[in-house]
């Protein structure tokens, strides 16, 4: 018999189990989108202030659009184009946001939706100082709304993005209840907001109220704000999930 071998104990023939370490959770990089949008906004400011290639592109795009707009065959579209631009008027867009905020407060029985609306209003209020600082002249001699302070970024575009966009966010996060049709309802709310913003921008360009980069600048600034608001809505929604009877965080 070989010394050290116990005949009563079977040899350990089971393969050794490899230790499996849990996969690390992906880093939450929600800040990348607002960071990229703000970077684009800064680049546009630089181009406008230094009269860079973006300004040349603005002139070219404006000329092409106005060639179409002033065509006799498109005369019927004049008033409709103005009406589309007015979708971004604060007197039109803000009541929509206030009504949706009231619905969200009622649905959640808390003031959390009001915090989101307040943050959106702060981002919107920052547009006027930006206009005054950049002091960009417009494509025509007739200022439209708060464009009298300057044309970059577009105030009407900012009104549309933050009022209609925040309204859709509140509906998706707090108002629309979970159910078989919840996904379609949320998609409809987001689609409606996108249509209203697109129509506003089209009306502004068609009516010669703004340069193209004015509207793109507002999309960058307000898009970054909406990305932050989405984060806030998700955090507040998850924090109140145990007491909130309706709605859920936006994915």
Please explain how this structure is put together:
It is globular, with a radius of gyration of 27 Å. Residues 239-247 have low confidence and may be disordered. By secondary structure, it is mostly helical. It has helices spanning 32-50, 53-69, 78-85, 90-108, 112-125, 127-134, 155-175, 182-206, 212-239. Helix 1 (32-50) runs antiparallel to helix 9 (212-239), helix 5 runs antiparallel to helix 7 and helix 7 packs parallel to helix 9. It is built from nine helices and no strands. Helix content is 63%, strand content 0%. 37% of the residues are buried.
For the largest beta-sheet, the strand count, sense and barrel status come to: none
Distance between the termini: 69 Å
Work out the oligomeric state of the chains in this entry: single chain
Strand tally is 0
**What level of helicity do the residues show?**
55-70%
SSE arrangement, N to C: HHHHHHHHH
Radius of gyration: 27 Å
Count of helical regions: 9
Architecture blueprint of SSEs:
Layout (H helix, E strand, L loop, with lengths): L31 H19 L2 H17 L8 H8 L4 H19 L3 H14 L1 H8 L20 H21 L6 H25 L5 H28 L12
Helix pairs in contact: 1-9, 3-8, 4-5, 4-7, 5-7, 5-9, 7-8, 7-9
